[in-house]
Amino acid sequence: MYRILIADDEEQIREGIIRKIDWEKIGYIIVGSAENGLDALEKAEHLHPDVVMTDIKMPFLGGLELGEKLRESMPSVKLIFFSGFDEFEFAQQAIKMHAAEYILKPINSEELTETLRKIKAQIDREVAEKRNVEVLKRQYEESLPVMRGQFLTDLIEGRVPKERLKAKAAQFRINLQADGWAVALLRVDAEEKTARVLQGQEELVPILLKSTTEGELEGYFRFVDFLAGDCVTVIAAIRSADGVLPLVNRMDQICSSARRVLGTKVMAGVSTAAENLSQLQHCYQEAQSALEYSAVLGGDKAISIADVEPDPSARAEFSEHDESEIVSAIKLGNKREIAQKIDSVFGQFRTVVLPLSQYQIFLLEIMTSLLKVLHAYRIDEAAIFGENFSFVQTISKLHSLEDMKRWCADVCMKISANIERERLDSTKLLTRSAEEYVRAHYQDPGLSVESLCSRLHVSPAYFSTVFKRESGKNFVSYLTEVRMRKAVELLNMTDDKTYIIAQKVGYTEPNYFSYVFKKKFGVSPSKYRNRT
2-7 and 266-270 as β-strands: parallel, antiparallel, unpaired? Predict the structure, then answer.
């Protein structure tokens, strides 16, 4: 069922249209009706109709003006205009805004029914096109290589959360079943000239190197490879019984084969093995270091980081991903979530024992990130750490990893509480400022969310959310309430004419003021005055 909103200032016509057509039979449901353009616009914003049927001539806001505003906010809505005036200019304007139909009064129910059937068929086609699974699948398949490459780049750079890794791997058809994983990087020597066959086409060098790599690895390893800058990056599944040595040997062979194909030195670096893909950021860093060793040693060979840096995993690293996780928990999480993130970051030390000094350096790196948060939110350091605080003295008193973890979690929770307190205070202050401004300027007919937000230097979307949460009502309702209270006061305390009172409370159109007043109190302003 598609949704229809009907707007006409004559109730008899509205009811006649609703009554004469079997809406469900032709695939529609009436979601609302309006007696003027402004009322129709407000209802459309809440009801989200698929079709709006509107008269051309209506008070406060005509049908064409209504159509223009709906075209801006709801470009997919279908517009049907009807009018008692057989004037070419109206039809011309309706055509300009791509109206679905222009109908002259009196409205013929059979003609309107046929028009609605045509519009339904048009909407059906549009919806079918959007939902065309085959088209979407084809588009997805075409974009899959690029998306897969971006995912793998994010993976080795530590930007894929653990909880999303399994789903993402399945999406990009990567088999996670393996004893372990290692990263290998290959690139040509930038100091040597490229083979004569590729002169003038240097951008093809990484592609040719990637093709050579795939041919040499196929059948020996289960792997994925992709281009990252000028490097071919390989993520290979490793058997725990073999370790990385077979991969190093194969990469060494690739360096020799690629030298023959490209006519230039090729170098390769291989990491140690990681148990799962979530640890690949560290492997990637190892492979980068090994690649530099290969360059220093003259290229034409693969270097394993384990050969040049014994036990490279035995070190404490506070990664960008760790920093992002902790800062995000402080800003948005609760105490339990903060504690979980801290425990996860410190979890890398469960299977390794390091000197105390390395743990202390690790904690200092965390504190540096937390200081950035304090400065960003202008939080006084004394409110978190106390007066005369010294990082060096405090950290020197923490003699175990567990003590450091507890102290770090406590600091993070204090910062989080301060941010939440500041956020609540700022939203209350913003709401009070808005209410005071409305009470002082309600008589301004140009007062709106946009003009107020311009003065308060906030976005309308953020302001609307905050104001509704703090005051319990939206801005337009609050402004109308203030204006209506003042109107009642003027009706009771003065002999001013209704149109004068309308102007005093911010309405340039007396008829619209009377309409809003009656909608609020059930009677017109003049009857309200006589009643009291």
Answer: unpaired
Structure confidence by residue, pLDDT tens digits, 370-379 = 888 888 777 8
Q: What is the 3-state secondary structure (H, E, C) of 499-527?
A: HHHHHHCCCCCHHHHHHHHHHHHCCCHHH
Instruction: From 271, 305, 314, 289, select the one nearest 180 (Cα to Cα).
Output: 271
Across all residues in the chain, what is the average pLDDT? 84
**Domain ranges across the chain:** 2-130, 140-308, 320-422, 442-531
Provide CATH code, domain 442-531. Answer: 1.10.10.60
Looking at domain 140-308, its CATH class is: alpha beta
Q: How many CB atoms lie within 10 A of CB 36?
A: 20
- CATH code reported for the domain at 2-130: 3.40.50.2300
Bridging pattern class, strands 266-270 and 180-188: antiparallel
Q: What is the pLDDT of residues 234-263, one digit of tens each?
A: 999 998 888 899 999 999 999 888 888 877
The two tokens of residue 144 are 């899959």
Cis-peptide into 106, omega within 30 deg: yes
- Please report how the helices 401-441 and 320-332 are oriented relative to each other, as an axis angle in degrees rounded to 10: 50
Instruction: For residue 323, count other CB atoms closer than 10 A to its CB.
Output: 17
Q: Supply the DSSP string of 70-113, one letter for each residue.
A: HHHH-TT-EEEEEES---HHHHHHHHHTT-SEEEESSPPHHHHH
Task: Look at the block and give the residue holding tokens 């997805």.
Answer: 140
pLDDT of residue 83: 80
Closest by CA to 221, choosing from 201, 240, 238, is 238
- Indicate the burial class of 345 (C-beta count within 10 angstroms; 0-12, 13-18, 19 or more): buried
Do the Cβ atoms of 31 and 49 come closer than 8 Å?
A: yes
pLDDT digits over 311-359, tens only? 545 566 778 888 888 888 888 778 888 888 888 888 877 665 565 677 7
pLDDT in tens, 37-78: 999 999 998 999 999 999 888 888 988 889 889 988 888 899
